[in-house]
Fold this sequence. Notes:
Oligomer: single chain
Shape: globular
Distance between the termini: 11 Å
Largest sheet: 6 strands, mixed
Order of helices and strands: EEHEHEHEEEHEHEEEEHEE
Structural class: alpha/beta
CATH class: Alpha Beta
CATH topology: Purple Acid Phosphatase, chain A, domain 2
CATH architecture: 4-Layer Sandwich
CATH superfamily: Metallo-dependent phosphatases
Radius of gyration: 17 Å
Strand content: 15-25%
Helix content: 10-25%
Amino acid sequence: xxxxxxGDVVGKSGRNCIAQxxxxxxxxxxxxxxxxxxENATHGFGLSQKHFHQLIQTGIxxxxxxxxxxxxxxxxxxxxxxxxxxxxxxxxxxxxxTGIGVAxxxxxxxxxxxxxxxxxxxxxxxxxxxxxxxxxLPQNLNKQNFDAIVVDVHAEFTAEKNALGHFxxxxxxxLVGTHTHVPTADHRVMPGGTAYITDVGMCGDYHSVxxxxxxxxxxxxxxxxxxxxxxxxxxxxxxxxxxxQTDPQSAKAISIQPIRIGGVLSPELPQTP
Length: 273
């Protein structure tokens, strides 16, 4: 099975890039399931119902969120409707929604999707992502219940993501880092069969400061005052993601390949199957 995970969708340019590129990516690379992080899709802050439906219509099968989950309050209604949408599973239990769900592949495959948030420089009161993953993941990856298991670690620190990658090796098909919007070059299949990348990057305008207008970001950082409000950059976006191929018998990863299309970053095109 071939799973495409797309990095954080940032603003209108990111949404437009996915709408333009995803249909042909699915065909060219024989993608069975598309999962994307959508927590910055609505003007950089959260995901509205409107933009959730737009992303699903482009060919995305399942969406994860993150620390901006509650920036678009109408997202709560989607949780009540059991939409293909999750937020970090280690958030306080009284919050709406859940952090674990099942994405469906084009041939009926069942992909368990689990998201956790990091503890460092993220939401206060977050439960340890290590404890959360230990509770929810099998001790050894197999196809008894799911065709694949995908873990989205939405975290700030690379060391925390590295440690979580080693912690779940052999227990998930893919552990992908999100949140920092900068693609890393350490994609690999770990010894236990878990595909890993510290950060998949973003689907957004890279002539920016992590997807936001550079002039405003510079002004805010120089003044150390959180004003004016950040605005998303609006040039041509780069689509950033990874394509993971899993073994049909074990559900472990066979390969992980980055994909980058459009915008100012150097393109990266995986081998076709």
